[in-house]
Amino acid sequence: MGIFGKQQYDNSGFTIVELLVVIAVIAILAGIVLVAYPGYQMRTRDNERKSDLSQAASALSTYAFQKNTFITTGCGKTGAGNGWLSGDSSHSPGLGGYPRSIVECLQDINALSSDAFADPTGCTYDSGGSCGTNPVKAYMKATCTKSGSPITYVFAYLESMPRKDAEVDALCDDNSVAGFTLAQQKWGSLFGMNYYMVVK
User: Fold this and answer.
1) Which of 4, 17, 52, 100 could form a disulfide with 104 if both were Cys (CB 3.0 to 4.6 A apart)?
2) Which domain holds residue 100?
3) Is residue 42 part of a domain?
4) Cα(136)–Cα(117) distance, rounded to whole angstroms?
5) In the predicted model, is pLDDT for residue 127 greater than 80?
C-alpha cells in the first residue's frame, strides 16, 4: 500500500460460531461456579465453627485457671456447667433449664467478649427444631470423666464432616456429665455433634 493508500479494516465482527463458542464457555464456567459455591459456603461456615470452638476452649481454659475448675457453676443445664454454650433461662425454663448461659459465666471473668455466641447459621441452642433437630447447629460443652480422669470438651456440628455418633457418644464415661442423664449425654446420636476439641 502506498503512502496515500487507504487502510482497510475488517468490520465483519464475530461469526455465529465464535459467539456460540463464547456463550458455551461462559455457560460452563457459570455451571462450575454454581456447583462449587455451596461447597465453598459450607467450608467457610465450618471454618468459622472451628474458630468459635477454639475461642470457647481458650475461654474455658482461662476460667479453669482462675477458678481451678472447668465446671462453670451456676450456668448451663441445671446450673451444673454443661450443655449448650449459649443456652439461657429462656431455654426450657423450669424443666431443669439453664439459670444462666455458660457464655455469661465466661464473660463474668472477662474470658469471652461475645454476647451472642452463635453458630454461623445464627443458632445458639436447640430451640424446638428451629436450629435443626439432629444435627443441631449450635455449640455444646461437657465436663465429664473418661476412664476415670476428668476431661472437658466443646462440640459443634460440621457440615463437611460425616457423622461419627458412636465415637462422640463414647467420649464420656456413663453418667459422668453433671446435669445430664446417660441418655442425654449422647452428643453424637442425640444432637449430631461430629467435631470436638479437648479443653486444656
Assistant:
1) 100
2) 50-198
3) no
4) 15
5) no
